[in-house]
Amino acid sequence: MRVLPKLMIAPNGATRTKDDHPAIPITENEIVKCAIECADAGADGIHFHLRDHNGKHILDSERCAKFISRLRKAVPSMIIQATSESAGIYSPSEQINFVKNCGADFVSVGLREIERLKNENEIRAAYHAFRDLGIWVQHILYDNTDFERLIDYNARGIIPEIETVLFVCGRYNVKQNSTLDDLLPFLQVLGKSTLAFDWAVCAFGKGESAALKEAQSRGGKIRVGFENSIWNSDGTIAASNVLRVKSLMT
């Protein structure tokens, strides 16, 4: 089983802009600079979103492959993860084609987004193709029912070996503010499962720090950064992604 980075930086996401925070890295140069700073601060992984010339989220497999090659040279100590997020723009088929051709050996895939296919045979074909291509999938889960469906898909052979998951806290809360109550249902299902896989947590809003510290205390990995939260633990606006990394180094 491949192992997740202990602390992955997610510096930009699909939607935030300089209007949300001037330190959001939008261009490739900015993402590389942020990656280097965060690696120096102790982050051992990066999850990135590429943007087009207008700053909009884009899934471009050729561009992604070139950028991953650049990142590998800039931050050789980091595990690099590409996103396959649709952001309301891409269809499941477009996402699947991107994953197959983007040059990444580690990709985050939202279970709910692939489930838009509706046909379990198509879902099976997608995940088995990822496995056959040697692509390491981190399954994005938004609640414990997502988690239970993932386990069921695995039991029925629709999704092959589950290596890593990401528990997302607070995405659908009021104002997208997470609390520890968002994490506990995931942990309850995790405690009942007999499967062996690595897990991490990310959390939206002002509750990010509390959720991530709880995950660390329970042996989980964490994903931190301006994709999900621009706040420090005391509710103040964080100055940069690198300072968020430093605040959670243990």
Molecular structure report:
This protein is of the alpha/beta class. The chain has an eight-stranded parallel barrel with strand order 1-2-3-4-5-6-7-8, surrounded by six helices. Helix 1 packs parallel to helix 2. The mean pLDDT is 96.
Q: How widely separated are the two ends? A: 24 Å
**Percent range of helical residues:** 25-40%
- SSE pattern: EHEHEHEHHEHEHEHEH
Mean pLDDT: 96
Report low-confidence residues grouped into runs of 5 or more.
none
Label the overall shape.
Answer: globular
Instruction: Sketch the major β-sheet.
Output: 8 strands, parallel, barrel
Strand order of the largest sheet: 1-2-3-4-5-6-7-8
The helix count comes to: 9
Question: Strand portion, in percent?
Answer: 15-25%
The tally of beta strands, per DSSP, is 8
Quick tags:
250 residues, alpha/beta, 8 strands
In brief, what are we looking at here?
The protein is an alpha/beta fold and 250 residues long. The protein has nine helices and eight strands.
Secondary structure elements and pairings:
Blueprint: E1 7-9, H1 28-41, E2 45-48, H2 61-74, E3 79-83, H3 92-101, E4 106-110, H4 111-114, H5 120-132, E5 136-141, H6 144-155, E6 164-169, H7 180-192, E7 198-203, H8 208-217, E8 221-224, H9 241-247
Parallel strand pairs: 1-2, 1-8, 2-3, 3-4, 4-5, 5-6, 6-7, 7-8
Helix pairs in contact: 1-2, 1-9
